[in-house]
Design brief:
By secondary structure, this protein is α/β, with parallel strands linked by helices. The protein is built from 9 helices and 8 strands. Strand 7, helix 8 and strand 8 form a beta-alpha-beta unit. The mean pLDDT is about 100.
């Protein structure tokens, strides 16, 4: 696939490396500009580009930036795009966002409301970057780590689940975007390396 990755930090950089290795056509961008991504591009074979270059023509776009930066993204650029939300809300970094502090909205629903017209799927937010880089295993491997995937668009969610599997993890359907709070920080599946049954159990045990 042609994939755009917004953000070159822990998760964005890791996905740039892993998805390039799988043969995808990856363009990565960040807030500092393409010149800051020269080393990552040279290492991975990915293209360092502007935000527009990363998103335009992409079949799938990963957003892995501080949540507070999401409202600054140009909405029209994402219209109709499959967007993978790999973000988490951290109040100490992102500031006070009332509907996220009181959990009246999941952070992915909040993101989807800012990126109206995009098909948003929540994934890759609960795994440590080092484990995403190193712990993928072939399908059927015992104790294969599972990752929850949440979204409202069944086709978009299926595409992301297939990508999770290709990266070496068992995808688990985690429901809708409104249910994606079950994989946010301070839940049983956040930052833990559970197998598929363990992820399903953790999602079910999560409390608001």
């Amino acid at each position: 696939m042609k994939i755009g990755i917004i953000g070159s930090g822990h998760i964005g950089g890791t996905l740039t490396r892993r998805l390039s290795t799988l043969g995808h056509d990856v363009t990565v961008t960040n807030s500092r500009g393409p010149q800051s991504l020269t080393d990552l591009a040279a290492e991975t074979g990915a293209t360092a580009g502007t935000l527009e270059e990363a998103v335009q023509g992409a079949e799938l776009v990963v957003v892995a930036i501080p949540l507070k930066a999401v409202p600054a993204l140009p909405v029209e650029l994402f219209d109709g795009r499959l967007v993978v939300d790999a973000n988490n809300y951290y109040p100490q970094r992102d500031g006070d966002i009332a509907e996220l502090l009181d959990r009246s909205l999941s952070s992915s629903r909040w993101t989807a409301e800012h990126l109206k017209g995009a098909r948003v799927v929540k994934a890759f937010n609960n795994i440590q970057a080092a484990h995403l880089m190193e712990s993928g295993r072939p399908a059927g491997t015992a104790d294969r780590i599972a990752l929850p995937v949440a979204g409202d668009d069944a086709q978009a969610k299926q595409t992301v689940m297939e990508l999770v599997d290709a990266l070496g993890f068992d995808p688990v359907d985690a429901g809708t975007l409104d249910e994606s709070w079950r994989q946010q920080p301070d839940t049983p599946v956040y930052g833990t390396d559970r197998d598929a049954d363990g992820v399903r159990k953790g999602l079910a045990e999560a409390r608001p």
